[in-house]
Design goal:
334 residues; alpha/beta; OB fold (Dihydrolipoamide Acetyltransferase, E2P); Rossmann fold; Ribonucleotide Reductase Protein R1, domain 1; 3 domains; six-stranded mixed β-sheet; five-stranded antiparallel β-sheet; globular; binds guanosine-5'-triphosphate; binds magnesium ion
Length: 334
Amino acid sequence: MRGRIPGTNGEITCTSGGLVRIGWCVERFGEHPPGALARVAVVERTRLRLHDGERVFPAVLPTLLRRARPEARPVVGDWVRYVEEGGQRLVKDCLARRNLLVRADSETGRPKPMVANVDEAFILSALDGDFHPRRIERYLNLVLAAGIAPLVLLTRADRAGAGAADAALARLAEIAPGCPAQVLDPRAPESAALLAPYLRPGTTVVLLGSSGVGKSTLLNTLLGEERRRTGAFRERDGKGRHTTTERALFPLPSGACVIDTPGLRALAFTPETELAAFADIEALAESCRFRDCRHEREPGCAVREAVAEGRLAAERLAHYRKLLAELEARRRPR
Ligand SMILES: Nc1nc2c(ncn2[C@@H]2O[C@H](COP(=O)(O)OP(=O)(O)OP(=O)(O)O)[C@@H](O)[C@H]2O)c(=O)[nH]1
Ligand SMILES: [Mg+2]
Ligand SMILES: [Zn+2]
């Protein structure tokens, strides 16, 4: 089977049977290595569920991989090689990743890899109850630091007051200049058509956002069937109930793959995380007189100069400083 993937820079041709349905592409991952290949659809405590483009089946991890450091263990979206052994499938190794989305444990700061080999991240945020631009900014940083393209989707507009959507879009333009964002009802079949340009064959999209914002609802709409359980939105405090408990990858009829994730209670960064959502500030900082300028009171600060001249929002500099301080605190030995 040959599938054609309309890429942004022209057409990419992909081969390799059913694997194309779940995102395999020679141009991206190299030639199919010898042996059986599959994509990690679900990670359970001691087993994985793999997808080979035709079906989902269980596989076990060898002790070496089970005991490996978190970044070396397969995550949803990874490509793995496996062998049949003693009536079960045993994972042999994990192919090199194109990217890895990693957050930190909010207590220990240790890396918690989430998903691998993702092209797009849809960051969902509800307009009623808890519209938190700072939270979106954190998701955005997580995604950009992994080299993944973000799209912010504002949901539950029908439950928010008139003007809430426009106000939120204006707010996003301030804190995330240049980041694409749109208002969307995850329940509406038209939403699938709206997102079609992001869901080309071969593309893998991860759904991110707090609990109850409509991630699983959107997945069901894109699949065209109710495959994933969805929950109720708790009105009082705007916090969802955490309906989804495991990350899982689903191939869509369109040829794209979507990874549904559980809503996170807190999003912490590993000490190494780049402040990729603030690349404009870091570029300005290169012109500061002092290399270690903190953009506070130092003379010759190009960043503060940009704020004074209205080229940079003071709020973004404040957010950048806060995140920088948070990362520095994480870098200090405990
Ligand atoms: N009124 C309205 N309800 C929505 C909208 N989007 C989602 N919902 C509802 O919100 C509830 C929560 O949706 P889910 O899809 O379960 O949310 P989730 O993001 O998957 O939540 P977790 O799995 O807990 O992380 C469901 O009852 C949806 O039908 C919307 O735009 N408007
Ligand atoms: Mg869910
Ligand atoms: Zn400076």
